[in-house]
Amino acid sequence: MKKSLVTFVTIPAIILMICTSPAFSKVWARVTGSVLSEDGTPIDGARVILILSEDGSKEELTTDEKGKWSRVNIRPGQYTIGIMADGYQPQNVTVNLSAIKKNPPIDIKLAPVPKSPLSTGNALYQEKKYAEALKEFQRVLAEAPELTELHEMIGLCYYRLDDLDNAAAAFKLMLEKKPGSRDTLVNLSSIYLEKGDLEEGMKYVNLLDEDALKDPATFYNIGIILFNKNKMDSAIENFKKCLERDPNYVKAYYQLGLSYLNQGDMENAKANLEKVIEVAPDSEKAALAKEMLSGL
Prior knowledge:
The chain contains twelve helices and seven strands. The chain is an alpha+beta fold.
């Protein structure tokens, strides 16, 4: 009697069918971890970015209030994991995640971002406590003279305190340390123009690329000094440069009107005085412009 072969044929076939079905076609990995500060405090909301080396695919998670994170049903393989949190230095780790054995938790401790020696002074400056900020910047400079940017901050503090001479001295020290510094040249030119020293102010303006000067007030101040020195052509040129940077700079239109009046150019004088009224109809300059126009 022949033995049936059904059992021997059917069982391997069934096993093959099960193993190749979609539900069993992939084997997944599971990974967990935590993000803590150096003292062990959980970091809530830290970003955890997992990048699979094989194809660069990326997944992003965030930690919970206990600093924990986890991901199930993830493809096995080598991953670069980046961990980031506000106020902390980021960290990367490379791990191999297995689908066969349990993956150990990825527990990371993040170091805080080092505090800048300028942070206290900057905070005081932002709070408009200029005298206190000045003392703080001077203290830090005495301890760390290599921090050349402190000369700029000291100059700004003196400027805010209306001590233009000491402000200029600080900015000149900054130029010695960092020749050609755009901000420093702008600050120095502004100081001397405010003081009415056109020659010294223009010396620093001429060291700048004019296109880099974005502040319309710089050209307005130059124009005013030239106007007061009765150099109308040069004054007009600078008032126009002011308006190129800010077409709504009312005072520049007003001064252009006065400059053209001084030259006897009534047409351009009227056009600019009318522009004052158009741009700022309720301003003091508009009232003066109307009065002047009525007499022309």
